[in-house]
Specification:
The chain is mainly alpha-helical. The protein is built from 41 helices and 9 strands. The strands form 2 sheets. A 6-stranded parallel beta sheet has the order 1-3-4-5-2-6, sandwiched between helices. Strands 7-9-8 form a 3-stranded antiparallel beta sheet. The radius of gyration is 37 Å and the shape is elongated. It starts with a helix and ends with a helix.
Length: 844
């Protein structure tokens, strides 16, 4: 009996492949997909018509668990390799990496590269250079590798070079000289060897050269042929290559691409298997992983390796990522030759290089780590340089240095710059790794620096009406303020004292955007800090209590609002805290709370007292005076005192157009109330243009989904309903309802829109829809006992009258009349009108 080695030699290469494939229960088509070859190639290998090409052998050995040296032997030289390759494949091949069988997505980029090279004239020079640029770990090398294998048949020669340093490039050229069997391969003069390889490239055509990991564009030029008939594919972190190459920026994977890759990498979805990869539970966890890792391929590969090696679930990985983030990002796993470094190591090396090149750039990067990752205003670094650490103050005297520093960061693709908006953005995992590298003390210090920088850029006095520029700044800085405040809280488990001012400013802005649930905890945190610093009766506490009370008033939480306003008035009334404007402001806001509850008799004297204090303190017309006048006019409208309301509204409109301008959203408030005045007198032709104007102003100033936009939509819809323009009315009212349900929830204003919609449907004889809307409105209004319930009950009375059920209609009229008499009084025009309808129905 012969030895084991002799028995193996008796078996051909093709037979080894067949036996191993069958042992693993793989079909030829599945094996072809896993290897990245055609089924025809598999058949030819198994029939010993041709040996597998050199670049397929490693994949076959790994997948089929074969011993490469025993099966294929040692290839003697390059000529033997060339003879073993089919004519359609490259005759000269040096690619040190096997094909990534788990490569997923990136189809658009691969197609772009292929189309670019196909378009180029083979006699062109550097126009045939194509560069993949982006952050370390973003997948540039893997894309280039996939391109090489996918389109190998279109080239006569493919060479892969390590372009990170002069030494690695020279070593790669030495290997090429050996493969090409050039006489200079033994040359000790490196320059002669380099020129010999370049000379060969100049006279040949149809080749593809991959320069992987280019770090220095100037160094690269020394290794590029001046003219050629081939193609150059570069991978680099550099975002500026000049004229060296056509460039495409490689971005993170989409959620869909990331999910597909994760399914492949965790072996949930294997090659050749169709259908749904994840269960519904795993799908949610997978999406959360992709989002948490911001679609970075290297991080997703690490996650897949961890899951594969530990046999944990996706939920387990997500748990450990949140609990031990720094450890998870530092764990690379085994058998990763193409990119052996972890995410943490890859980014940390980049940070070190930045620190060496420019401490200023390093500090800018640290500041960005404490902000939201996208749309970071460059002006933040210019206007707040004094607050942002040791190196940034120089930007206050020499703004040109900012460009220099950003240039250093772009060398490693650590930030992206949008020249149109003058903003920066960065990958979330860059932020994560950078934050994890800081000590607790450093984390706290940097958050406080950034908080102070943002705080000083936002206006102080919450009673000041913001200009459009100030509103724009609030919108730009809001996500960054929230991100930094969250990190500040995480650093110590609570907010630091220096964050109190910014907490209030952000909360005020969120309140004005009707984001009440987001604003409330910020107000409460700020109040706790102010009470700790100043005590419970300080004037500062009174101001902050008033701001939180305004939130509750707008939110419809009237008891909480009333309690806080009364508490703040007590503080302001003290000798040490007396301020007429503070008292006037609080009286006005408390009167609003009473007015929204229908407590008109309690609201009117508060408005009048507030107006007197404002006029005494300010003298000439000021924005605060216009606010009180406007609110008093609206109160008169609710009381049915329309003859008093109109002159006040016209006076307010004159003040606001002069001080704020005709297109300010506060001007729109008065225009809207003036339109409501015209609606009462059925002067719809005068109301409509005012409402269209207010709608345009509010949409432009506040956005399409702000609750104030719903006010204009609601009132304009009412005008169109009264004019019989039912289709237009319904479209506007439904849009107003969607805004109010989303932003306000079960609020009296939501009920008001439901009631108007109910009336519209009654007019259209859509009685089922009308009843549904009225009942929804009544469910909101009956609980707090709101005066608007009278309108809803009257609508239900009209509905049942139309349905021929007069007894039920009478009962609803009686309930509505009782509410009007309770809240408005028996002599109110609305009460009297309702009583007339009621008596008419009774007599009928």
């Amino acid at each position: 009996m012969g030895s084991k080695q002799e028995n193996q030699k008796a078996v051909s290469v093709g037979q080894h492949i067949v036996q191993a494939r069958r042992r693993l229960h793989l079909s030829q088509s599945v094996l072809a997909e896993m290897v990245g070859a055609s089924v025809r190639s598999i058949k030819r290998w198994e029939q010993d018509q041709v040996l597998p090409q050199l670049f397929y052998r490693e994949a076959l050995c790994r997948i089929l668990q074969l011993d490469g040296e025993e099966i294929f032997g040692v290839v003697a030289n390059v000529a033997e390799v060339a003879m073993a390759l089919p004519r359609a494949m490259p005759h000269l091949w040096h690619v040190p990496y096997q094909r990534n069988l788990l490569f997923t997505g990136r189809a658009t980029i691969l197609q772009s590269i292929h189309e670019f090279f196909k378009r180029q004239d083979t006699s062109a020079t550097l126009t045939q250079s194509y560069a993949l640029s982006g952050l370390g770990g973003i997948g540039k090398t893997q894309i280039a590798l996939e391109y090489v294998y996918r389109y190998a048949t279109e080239y006569t020669t493919i060479f892969w070079l390590d372009a990170e340093t002069y030494e690695t490039l020279l070593a790669s050229f030495t290997v090429l000289a050996e493969i090409l069997d050039l006489a200079e391969q033994v040359e000790q003069d490196h320059q002669r060897l380099r020129r010999a390889v370049l000379d060969w490239l100049r006279v040949q055509s149809g080749w593809l050269l991959v320069f992987d990991n280019v770090e220095d564009a100037n160094l690269l030029k020394r290794f590029l042929p001046t003219s050629h008939g081939g193609a150059l594919l570069l991978t680099t972190r550099l975002q500026a290559l000049g004229t060296s190459a056509q460039q495409i920026s490689v971005e993170s994977m989409t959620v869909e691409e990331g999910m597909a890759f994760l399914a492949q990498r965790t072996r949930v979805l294997k090659s050749g298997v169709a259908g749904k990869a994840f269960s519904s539970v795993d799908s949610l966890a997978g999406q959360a992983i992709v989002i948490a890792l911001d679609g970075l391929p290297l991080a997703l590969d690490q996650a897949g390796a961890y899951i594969e090696e530990t046999q944990h679930s996706l939920q387990d990985y997500l748990h450990w990522y949140h609990q031990r983030r720094s450890m998870v990002l530092a764990r690379r796993g085994q058998n990763h030759y193409e990119h052996p470094a972890s995410v943490a190591t890859t980014f940390s090396l980049s940070f070190q290089l930045v620190e060496q090149k420019s401490p200023l750039a390093a500090d800018i990067l640290r500041v960005c780590a404490f902000l939201a990752p996208d749309a970071i205003p460059e002006e933040l670094f210019m206007r707040s340089a004094l607050h942002l650490g040791q190196h940034l103050p120089v930007l206050g005297t020499d703004p040109w240095l900012l460009d220099e520093a950003i240039g250093v960061l772009r060398m490693y693709s650590l930030v992206r710059r949008d020249s149109a908006t003058h903003t920066l953005s960065m990958h979330r995992l860059v932020q994560v790794v950078l934050l994890d590298s800081l000590s607790k003390q450093e984390l706290l210090q940097w958050t406080e620096n950034v908080i102070q920088a943002i705080d000083q850029m936002l206006p102080d006095d919450q009673q000041t009406i913001l200009t459009q520029e100030q509103q724009s700044w609030y919108s730009k800085l809001l996500p960054h303020a929230l991100a930094c405040l969250a990190l500040n809280e995480q650093a110590t488990g609570s907010f630091s004292p220096r964050s109190s001012s910014l907490l209030v400013k952000v909360a005020n802005h969120l309140r004005d955007q009707a984001r009440f649930e987001d604003a409330e905890p910020l107000y409460k945190s700020a109040l706790a800090l102010y009470e700790q610093d100043f005590g419970p009766c300080h004037i500062q506490m009174g101001e902050k209590l008033s701001e939180l009370a305004q939130l509750y008033g707008l939110w419809g939480k009237y008891p909480e609002a009333e309690r806080l306003f009364l508490r703040s008035l007590v503080i302001f009334a003290q000798p040490s805290g007396q301020s007429h404007l503070n008292i006037a402001h609080n009286l006005n806001e408390l009167a609003l709370v009473y007015g929204r509850q229908g407590k008109y008799e309690e609201a009117e004297p508060l408005f009048l007292r507030s107006l007197i204090l404002c006029e005494q303190e300010l003298g000439s017309p000021q924005p605060l005076i216009s606010v009180v006048l406007n609110n008093l006019a609206v109160l008169y409208q609710h009381q049915g005192k329309y003859e008093k309301a109109e002159p006040l509204l016209l006076r307010v409109l004159d003040i606001r157009e002069q001080i704020l301008g005709p297109d300010h959203h506060r001007t729109a408030v008065t225009l809207n109330y003036l339109a409501v005045h015209y609606i009462f007198y059925q002067r719809y032709a005068e109301a409509e243009p005012l409402l269209l104007r207010t709608l345009a102003i509010r949409e432009q100033e506040l956005g399409l989904t702000h609750p104030s936009v719903a006010i204009s939509l609601n009132d304009l819809g009412q005008v169109y309903r009264e004019q019989g323009r039912y289709a237009e009315a319904e479209r506007l009212l439904l849009r107003a309802l969607a805004i109010r349900e989303q932003r306000l929830g079960l609020h009296p204003l939501t009920a008001r829109t439901l009631t108007i919609l109910g009336g519209l449907y009654v007019q259209q004889k859509k009685y089922a829809e009308a009843g549904q809307r009225y009942q929804q409105a009544l469910a909101i209004l009956e609980k707090p006992g709101h005066p608007d319930a009278a309108d809803t009950l009257q609508g239900l009375a009209n509905l049942y009258q139309a349905l021929g059920q007069p007894e039920t209609a009478v009962a609803f009229y009686e309930d509505a009349l009782a509410i009007c008499e309770r809240f408005l009084g028996p002599e109110h025009p609305k009460t009297m009108e309702l009583r007339t309808h009621y008596r008419t129905l009774l007599s009928a």
